[in-house]
Design brief:
Blueprint (H helix, E strand, L loop, with lengths): L2 H18 L6 H14 L3 E3 L1 H9 L5 E5 L5 H14 L3 E4 L2 H7 L4 E2 L5 E2 L6 E4 L7 H12 L1
Helix pairs in contact: 2-6, 3-4
């Protein structure tokens, strides 16, 4: 009798992931979805130092840079590294949104993000599961 409950548990675990798949029809939605999936497999790198190391080691698959970053040298470094290593770079308007999507926040009991920390630079080393968000992002990158 013990294998049957196991199978049930696995099905229950899989269901929410399918439910969460939102319609992705804009870039922010795609970035959010890609980061959400990458977080699951520990594939999100945050912060200039770590991101720079991962781009340099050719481990970064895609880099997200906040346009609201007010440090020109910071942007130049990330942009230069991406060009040098041929890593796709996606501009995200707001560093607070990017921080939230990259998991730099607490989620309160109502499911709302609190204490969001801004992230000017985030990269993905492992996309995890590919879904609509991933497809959208890849299409966006190939059209650039």
């Amino acid at each position: 009798p013990s294998p049957a409950p196991m199978a049930d548990e696995e099905e229950v675990e899989v269901a929410p992931a399918v439910e969460v798949e939102e319609e992705v029809n804009d870039l922010p939605g795609a970035v959010k979805g890609v980061l959400k999936r990458a977080l699951v497999v520990d594939g999100v790198i945050r912060g200039l130092h770590e991101v720079a190391k991962h781009i340099d080691a050719s481990k970064a698959q895609v880099v997200f840079l906040a346009e609201s970053c007010n440090e020109p040298a910071y942007k130049k470094l990330v942009q230069g590294l991406c060009v040098e290593k041929n890593v796709p770079l996606v501009d995200v308007p707001d560093n607070k949104a990017l921080g939230e999507w990259a998991g730099l926040c607490k989620i309160d009991k109502d499911g709302m993000p609190r204490k969001v920390v801004g992230a000017s630079c985030v990269c993905v080393t492992d996309f995890g599961e590919e879904g609509q968000a991933y497809e959208y992002l890849m299409n966006y990158l190939s059209s650039k």
